[in-house]
Amino acid sequence: xxxxxxxxxxxxxxxxxxxxxxxxxxxxxxxxxxxxxxxxxxxxxxxxxxxxxxxxxxxxxxxxxxxxxxxxxxxxxxxxxxxxxxxxxxxxxxxxxxxxxxxxxxxxxxxxxxxxxxxxxxxxxxxxxxxxxxxxxxxxxxxxxxxx
Length: 148
Known about the structure:
The chain has 4 helices and 5 strands.
C-alpha cells in the first residue's frame, strides 16, 4: 500500500477534528463530539511538550490518527495512547496497524519503556489491541466519578 505517515501538525487540526468526530460519534463508541469540542481536545493535547502524534494519508486523504503523551514514571518514560482512530469505511485495510507500528517505532527510538491506553470494553476494541500485544493489566483499573 502506498501511504504516507507523518507527524501531526497544528495546521491540519481541522481535518483531524473532522475525522475524530466522524469516527467517535459512530459505533461502537456513539459519543456526542462536535467539531468545536474535538478541536479543543486535539489542540490542548498538541500544544503540550509531551505530545507525540501521527497521521496516515493515502493519496493525500487522511485515513487515521494516533496520539498521546509521554510521562515520567519511576522506571522510565511511559506513553499513554490517548486517541487512535481510522476513518469509518477504511478500517481493516492496514492503516491502523501501520500507524501503531510507526508510533511504536518512534517510541522505541526515544526510550519509552511502557505503552498503555484506556479503551472501551468490547470485542471490537479489546480484540484489536490484544492482537497487537496489549494485555489487560492485573495491577491497574480505571475508576470514574460521575457525581458532579
